Amino acid sequence: MTVTTLTPTATLPADWRDFFALTKPRVMRSVVFTALCGMLAAPVQLPFVLGFTAILCIAMAAGAAGALNQWYESDIDALMKRTANRPLPAGKMERETALQFGVGLGVFSVLLMGMAIGLVAAALLATSILFYVLVYTVGLKRRTPQNIVIGGAAGAFPPLIGWVAATGSISTLPLLMFAIIFLWTPPHSWALALLIRDDYAKGGVPMLPVVASARTTRWQMLFYAVLMAAAALSPWALGLAGATYGIIAAVTSAIFLGLTAWVVVQRAATPPEMKAERFLFVYSIGYILAIFATLAIDRLTA
């Protein structure tokens, strides 16, 4: 699959807002939130200063991964309407600057985590950066429609890192938190991909709706949504969370499954407004926040 590279004719001076945009702040907020929930759900609570430092390191690592992602994908970002105004395709920054910023931020975050928290947390943090950049961005995204399935592991690391930062070890609950995000990522991402299929096609990104039918994509969304719901209920079923979490997880997961089923039963291959996909995409964001917030509160008040 050939991708045309568009290079701006001039580079404008970058300011702090361009560097901030490189970190993908919307993604970073989700990363920080789920990492904090993982930390709060742990049986050991860090002192405030250490906890803040751990979350800061995770935020910086997420920003580094975002910057390196944009450095590598500046060519396809220039082709897609959704990403054309990012600092690199918009000509506001040199690619080398983005590379140096991403590498520097990533190295600093891992070193600080290692010195302040411990080697296990630092190793996991480094693994999450490398997985997102090397496995997902470089190895998968342009090569396979399963990019978001395997690559979803990158976004599932934060609660695991938060837990390890607090405890120094890995146990069943943080692995379930990892699994919830991992299984949530395909239906969440493919709902968006169905909405902006033409944009991905223009950029040469083989997202599932680009290389397969909308019907195939929708059935796969339902498959992962069922697995996600099972993972979300597992902390309660295994006695790792209380009844309040179990009820909220059951209700919110049932709504998620209902919306995904609505996506599947649409008769037209590409409905003009795609209301079901829009509802599911928006709801999926609130769903993951609700699940993790409820789990953290449940554990804190147990």
TrEMBL record:
Membrane association type: Multi-pass membrane protein
GO MF annotation, one: protoheme IX farnesyltransferase activity
GO BP: any one term: heme O biosynthetic process
Catalytic activity reported: heme b + (2E,6E)-farnesyl diphosphate + H2O = Fe(II)-heme o + diphosphate
Keywords (A to Z) from UniProt: Cell membrane, Heme biosynthesis, Membrane, Transferase, Transmembrane, Transmembrane helix
Chief localisation class: membrane
Superkingdom assignment: Bacteria
Summary of the function given for this chain in its UniProt record: Converts heme B (protoheme IX) to heme O by substitution of the vinyl group on carbon 2 of heme B porphyrin ring with a hydroxyethyl farnesyl side group.
Family: Belongs to the UbiA prenyltransferase family. Protoheme IX farnesyltransferase subfamily.
HAMAP family: CyoE_CtaB
Name of the protein this chain belongs to: Protoheme IX farnesyltransferase
